[in-house]
Amino acid sequence: MKIGIVCYPTFGGSGVVATELGIGLAGKGHEVHFITYKRPVRLTTFHANVFFHEVTAMEYPLFEFAPYETALASKLVDVIRFEKLDILHVHYAIPHAAVAYMSKQILKSKGIHIPIITTLHGTDITLVGTDSSFAPVVEFSINSSDGVTAVSHHLKEETLQTFQIKQDIRVIHNFIDFSRFRKTNKDHFKKAIAPDGEKILVHISNFRKVKKVEDVVRIFEIVISKVSAKLLLIGDGPERNSMEELCRKLNICDHVRFLGKQEAVEEILAVSDLFILPSQNESFGLAALEAMACEVPVISSNAGGLPEVNIDGVTGYVCDIGDVTGMAKRCIELLEDDISLAKFRKNAFSQAKKFDIHEILPQYENYYLEVISKSQL
Ligand code: GMT
User: Which atom of ligand 1 lies nearest, measured to the CA of 127?
Assistant: First the structure.
């Protein structure tokens, strides 16, 4: 198939999933065209079947904001027509689903049919999509897509409760590439971080409020009162400064390292003992899955789709959102019991295997074929 993919090219989970999906599909012989404003961050190496079309919105003194949506729609029309794409897959409803609809209508006026699939990732439905400045467009463009997928059952249910949806929503979970995410021996790195054999706790996110990084720090403060440990905080975002201040206030800076944005997170996960994800909202929790693939158990909140990924009492523990004491207690229990920790590590890996890219990719391929065969001009 010739597949167009539209996504945010930055570090966000939706962009990561879209890019890995495109690379995976190209590896299976499909021709994949990424259409977005910047080269996706995970698209670092050359792939024979992968093409990238950069969208540039023209600057003009009249425009306070360059009209990206119009430029993207025009680029989509051009690429779909010239490259003869079979299907367009847009990730994150805002604004991509609406732009895809616009390009579909333009192409229709020229006698060209392009089926559109929209994948919902979370905040496009929850935090952002429900805002009255977006909601009518989100609802309309979901209903106008030829196919719609959600990355968890929870997100599907939330979408159906939030909007008047006439479409069937297919759940296709996020996935993991084990050729990259697996436990490798990084003992030299472990020694540098935890020279006295301390346990290593890790959190990876974009440091937005919704991730509750403050809870991570407060959990850790309780943990180190019982267990000798280090906390690695990976990523960057609006909460980073206040979290540095909080660590100073709590006098725990010697035990906490802020590592900023990192490319090779699998190397950090390889030396970690527990992954902490206490989010307020989380449609899936790709970062938790990446940890589990590297045999790191997860202590998480029960937000959104997290319980579909992290199984309470098996791959880690799932506590109520905001239950800092409960999460800290679970961390301590596991860190003090090497036998349980080893068992949870194995369980985390087995659960991650269910989301192996080789299992999930065919679900997308079959869905593409299904949508292509049932949609018409
Ligand atoms: O969670 C983020 O901050 C990034 C966000 C995004 O839209 O890129 O992630 C969402 O999509 C990911 C990939 O499907 C999911 O794993 C995340 O759970 C989801 N985030 C939220 O629902 C808050």
Answer: 23
Tell me the C-alpha distance between 117 and 64, whole Å: 31
Within a domain: 181: no
Give me the number of domains the chain comprises: 2
Residues 14 and 115 in one domain: yes
Render pLDDT for 146-171 as a digit per residue (tens, 0 to 9): 999 999 999 999 999 999 999 999 99
Would you say residue 360 lies in a domain? yes
Q: For ligand 1, atom 23, name the residue with the nearest CA.
A: 282
Among the atoms of ligand 1, which is closest to the Cα of residue 284?
18
Read off the pLDDT band of 186 (50, 70, 90).
confident
Domain that holds residue 124: 2-175+356-375
Q: Residue 17 C-alpha to ligand 1 middle, in angstroms?
A: 10
Q: Are residues 331 and 371 in the same domain?
A: no
